[in-house]
Amino acid sequence: MKFVAFLLFSIFAEVIFSSCPNGTVEFQNHCYFFETNATNFPNAELACNSLKGHLVSIHDGFTNAIITGQSGNYFHESTVTDFWIGLNSLMVPGNWSWTDNSSFGFTEWAPTEPKNLTMNCGALTVKSGLWDSDDCFKTKPYVCETSTVTYPSFVNCSEGWVYFQPTHSCYGHNGYSSQSGNWAVAEKYCENQTAHLPSIHSYDEMRFLWTMVSFMTGVAPWIGLTSNDNEVTWKWSDGSPVDYLPWASGYPKLNVSSCAYLYNNRIWDYTCTYSLYFICKKPATL
User: Fold this and answer.
1) Could you say which of 71, 99, 132, 243 would form a disulfide bridge with 86 (CB–CB 3.0 to 4.6 Å)?
2) CA angle in degrees (0–180, nearest 5) for 269-278-194
3) Positions in the chain short of pLDDT 50
């Protein structure tokens, strides 16, 4: 029943939502569904296909750690020791690949693994995070991976802008300047696009914004936070409430009229006349 509900929600969400459905784990633009009902490897892959996804593929140690850690929250029955991932050698024994046809490079095999026997498929061990190989027709729980669902087309979230559902706002690439500028220049640039330098009101928004900027350049950008009274009070350029200020340790510290930038999921104060890159934010409209 849970699987059917997730399937129906996924189809509906593809049209009107932009984040992962409830009951899934979102990480790096993917949704991970942890299915507790055990089945064999082929049926698990078919079930994931019905969600327009595949059994999960893992390409780095951090993702492996995320999947392992979350598995303990879902596969906590005492009899569950491992679960299917998208790894298999069904085409050519001993030649391992992912069901989504992504590149196979990173591995986390347990000692003596893989066994490289005929009809072998890969599973991830709940306690250790290491991979083992097993008969593909054994039944195990499994993890599906899908892309985050598509956002609706908002008129002002045109090409170059990214819609973020929790804030119902657009964050732009053409709202992102490849040229640097001081804070006032950056804010004026955004205002000319009926936007502002971004205000931040939650950890999720901060993480989204920093991930977006890191993907583009990795350079710290101006945000819309500024102080005109030697850092006694702060305000956002878009006039929104100052309700979330995740300052870096020891900041703010200039004790002069200053502005703020975002770096590594923290806010730092800086002299407003310095030049930094920037990104803009505006409310989404239909």
Assistant:
1) 99
2) 115
3) 1-18, 215
Q: What is the DSSP string of 107-137?
A: --BPTT-----TTEEEEEETTT--EEEEETT
User: Which structure tokens are listed for 280?
Assistant: 């803009």
CB 41 within 8 A of CB 84: yes
Which residue in the block uniquely carries the two structure tokens 């690439």?
173
2-147 under CATH 3.10.100.10, yes or no: yes
Kind of pairing between the strands at 276-283 and 221-227: parallel
Lookup: tokens for 86: 């998208």
Place of tokens 């806010």: 267
Tokens of 58: 């893992």
Could you tell me which of 145, 139, 140, 116 has the C-alpha nearest to residue 126? 140
| Topology (CATH) of 161-283 | Mannose-Binding Protein A; Chain A (3.10.100)
Q: What is the pLDDT of residues 110-133, one digit of tens each?
A: 999 998 776 689 999 999 999 999
**148 residue type, one letter:** T
For the stretch 25-42, pLDDT in tens is: 888 889 999 999 999 998
Question: Residues of CATH 3.10.100.10 domain(s) within the chain?
Answer: 2-147, 161-283
Residue 247, exposed/middle/buried by CB under 10 A (0-12, 13-18, 19+)?
middle
Using alpha carbons, list the distances in angstroms from residue 176 to 25, 48, 173, 213, 284.
29, 36, 4, 9, 16
Cα–Cα dist 17/189, whole Å: 30
3-class DSSP state for residue 222? Answer: strand
